[in-house]
Design brief:
about 25% helix; 2 domains; single chain; alpha/beta; about 160 residues; 4 helices
């Protein structure tokens, strides 16, 4: 479902209590996201059924701050045993691509989560807004487009 400026619709009219068991996937600027999430809560959609991708300058600033804290680490591909260094200034996706390993990434098309990759060993540094907190706590998957590693290595299900 999509709403645009040509046909303005109050956000509250998008969801109803009939949607309480629905899944909500949404992306956009911060103000829009807050209004959508508020409408979903009013419709009693469970927070565990809400997925979001936030496009905002605050997120970009947070990413810049996180990037300044980046350090190099190594990802190991379980299928081949190949070890790939992820420099402090590159994402896992870019390091893998440079090594000839392609990951599906559809962020630009609004398909956040398409790059979700299994983690078999070690601890990811979750920097996404896609995974729910309880999913992040399991440390069995991460988003290589923006997340990194807490540990020195990450063994990936690739």
């Amino acid at each position: 479902m999509s709403f645009d400026d040509d046909h303005p619709t109050p956000v509250e009219s998008i969801l109803s209590h009939d949607d309480s068991e629905s899944w909500l996937y949404t992306c956009g600027p911060e103000g829009f996201m807050k209004s959508i999430m508020s409408a979903a809560q009013a419709a009693t959609v469970s927070p565990s059924r809400m997925r979001k991708e936030l496009f905002t300058s605050d997120a970009a600033a947070a990413a810049d701050t996180a990037a300044s804290c980046n350090r190099a680490f190594t990802v190991v591909l379980r299928s081949s045993g190949k070890a790939i260094e992820v420099p402090a200034d590159k994402t896992v996706v870019h390091a893998l691509s440079d090594a000839g390993v392609d990951i599906v990434v559809s962020c630009e098309q609004g398909h956040c989560g398409s790059c979700l990759t299994g983690v078999l060993e070690d601890i990811p540094d979750h920097r996404d807004q896609f995974m729910l907190p309880e999913e992040q706590e399991r440390n069995d998957a991460f988003t290589p487009c923006c997340s990194r590693a807490v540990s020195e290595t990450l063994v990936l299900d690739l």
